[in-house]
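Before going further, it is useful to explain how the protein records used in this thesis are read. An example of such a record is reproduced below.

***
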Amino acid sequence: MSKENILIVDDEEDVLELVRYNLDKSGYHTGTATTGEEALTKARAKLPDLMILDLMLPGIDGLEVCRKLKSDSKTQNIPIIMLTAKGEETDIVTGLELGADDYVTKPFSPKVLVARVRRILHRAVARDLEKAPLKIRDLTIDPARRQVLIKNKPVNLTFTEFNILRFLTRRPGWVFTRSQIVDAVRGIDYHVTERSVDVHVLGLRKKLGKFGNVIVTVRGVGYRFKE
């Protein structure tokens, strides 16, 4: 049974308890916070394995919490699932650009949320854990350490950015649609727009710097890793 620590951040008591109950029942250890300030304090004091973060919080809102966590080398690798209200597409895109890994819109199915949590924590890690590092010129991808190096200098990628890069490098030259990329890194039941895939790829390219051109856009189709 899972024993990962998950920090749930929401100022609505009923939502907080609903999420906590279902995660506890699924075998996870949970902690809670009701404000952005409390979330930052708890995340920095004891790094959670994943954070479920409501965007609408009193004081420091969820986007600012995400921004602060992703700009801190100590907390930047914490996977974040955003909880959003319907119609907050702009906030969703902003959150993804800041480094959040997934989102669920309210009202949501607890079973779907638990499935998203389980996938983020385990699927990619289990798949890549025993694979040897891949070196392509000055770019090194180490699945076991979930680390990317350029000329031996680390590149800080989000959970999803790493998974996309790892997926594309498995088949250099192959063209993958956005849907295929999502299926590979998040599963076939993940609802996604083309825009959110593009946001992750854009962030990945920026972080790879001059090596970002190894990810080629195939107009009207998707992406490929340059041979």
